[in-house]
Amino acid sequence: MDAKQYRIVNLALESPLHEQILVELKLERLLNETEQARGLMFVAKLAENEGVLLEYPKEARRGIWMKNMLIPIDAIFVNEKGHVVAMFSEIEPCPLTEKCPIYAAEKTQYIIETAAGFIKTHGLQTKHTRIVFD
After folding, report:
1. How far apart are the first and last CA of the chain?
2. Which CATH number is correct for 6-133, 3.40.50.2300, 2.60.120.1140, 1.10.150.240, 3.30.365.10?
């Protein structure tokens, strides 16, 4: 079995005055289609600054759904330059008896899935958030 690969990610939160606050995340890298389709399915608990990083070779319309999810999450969609193009806060698991909606964004190369509340706790805003990969 392959060891999990982690990537430390700093979110540079940029205010309109160009002040920056760094927030560190420990993300499991999901590099292939099977891992990306699984995402955080069946995960029962997630620490505040942990999650998964779905990495794609180039920008395109990308999406996630909440099938087989046990916990709500936040999702952050990032373009190739590290700018946040969309965010979805506190997405609830999809009941097995319902059709699951797709949460998607254009021009996405990375998707970060974190514990629900991460976006609100850190005051993330699409226009003022840039992701810096270390």
Report:
1. 26
2. 2.60.120.1140
Measured torsion, CA atoms of residues 49, 29, 60, 106, in degrees rounded to the nearest 10:
-10
Amino acid at 65: W
DSSP state letters, 12-77: EEE-TT--EEEEEEEEEEE-SHHHHHHTTTT-----TTEEEEEEEEEEEEEEE--TT--S-EEEEE
Contacts of 94 (CB under 8 A, 6+ apart): 65, 66, 67, 69, 100, 101
Residue pair 50/27 in contact by the 8 Å Cβ criterion: yes
What's the predicted TM-score (pTM) here?
Answer: 0.88
- 11 closest CA partner among 90, 116, 124, 106: 124
Q: What is the CA angle 120-69-125, rounded to 5?
A: 20
State residue 134's pLDDT score.
67
Digit-coded pLDDT (tens) for 30-50: 888 888 888 898 899 999 889
Question: What distance in Å separates the CA atoms of residue 80 and residue 102, rounded to the nearest whole number?
Answer: 21
